[in-house]
Amino acid sequence: MPPSRDLEEMWRDLAPVGRSASSGGYFRQPWASAEIELREWFAEECAARGLTVETDGIGNQVAWWSPSSPSVEEGAPRLRRPEEARQRRLEGSRDQGVLTGSHLDSVLDGGAYDGPLGVASALAAIDLLRERGFEPSRPIGVSVFVEEEGSRFGRACLGSRLVTGATTWEEARELRDRDGTFLGDAVSAAGLDPSRGLLSLEGVGTFVELHVEQGRDLVDRDVAVGLASEIWPHGRWRFDFAGQANHAGTTRMEDRHDPMLTYAMTALAANKQARLAGQRATFGRVSVEPNGTNAVPSLVTAWLDARASADDTLAAMVAEISRQADERAGRDGTSLVVTPESVSGSVAFDPGLAQRLAGLGDWPVIPTQAGHDAGILSDAGIPTAMVFVRNPTGVSHSPDEHAEMADCRAGVEALADVLAELTGAPE
After folding, report:
1. What is the model's pTM?
2. Which of 144, 223, 268, 314 could pair covalently with 61 via S-S, beta carbons 3.0-4.6 A apart?
3. Which domains does the chain have, with CATH numbers?
4. pLDDT > 60? residue 315
């Protein structure tokens, strides 16, 4: 087997893929060229380590290092329908393999570290364990889940939702991107065949995801690595504000039914409600029809991303924003329809597992407001933990997202220690 490649070497290969020459940000949309290139990169890196990658019908990938061989053996999952795999997990032993990894797609004009750092660090952690002479007593898998960001088809963590059965393929394939392309068609155009089935997680006893921190908690604590305690509940809601198209010059202000005004007030209301409650509310995407400079719009569609520290707090905040928007619509002579598109409840990671792993390096256990595949697998009943790597600015979902290589190496060390703890020879 060829010598393992350093994390920094892998990072240099990843850096140019899907990067914008103008902004420096990344456009790694699922089932498009950059993301396909990254999946090929992952397969090559696994092959160099003697790991055989299995790719399911929608592009999720996993490769296993089993105790007796560096290649896939009985520890690897088979393609299986999610509902069947879920039942088999409930009926069978859970003390099996440990899965790690993350995702390779990005938000539009996103940062380099969100997702790929977890994948590259997982490979580097296996290298480090082998250098230590460590032999796992249970399989260690490295996974890549597709469409984690939800930036193309609007459904966050879609790959892991499909694998766990939280979303059905019959529902997902009808989703459309901004160009009107059906998800099912995009998957087929990428050379994949959904009829092959999805990865089964029946052989997974624990999932550990390494991720760059999306915030400043570790910076404020002056530590390089932390573990997750919970994920805040969060979701996306589509607000459709309908009015009457008209001439921007000849229509008196008092005669207008302008949905842009209703939207503008709603965006301000969302900001105020989130600030008052110490929560998060963001309108980050807007579509306007007919989108003409000299026309009053007929329709404004805006997407609200809302997050809160508790499920009831989130529901109350979104309800209040919707109430104020509806009242304003009445005054503006417009109408409003609010549609929840992707809502995830609060996720509390296994506290015993978190405390056990935190003791390996005296790492802090902190909450996160960002959604992750780890939350989906935790909801599916798989004991789950997250390792965070310090982000010196706290900026994420932006070209300015960053992590120092020294901290990234500390993350690899921490992940290797965690994997060794979870797969070491039983006493």
Report:
1. 0.85
2. 144
3. 7-232+346-423 (3.40.630.10), 234-344 (3.30.70.360)
4. yes
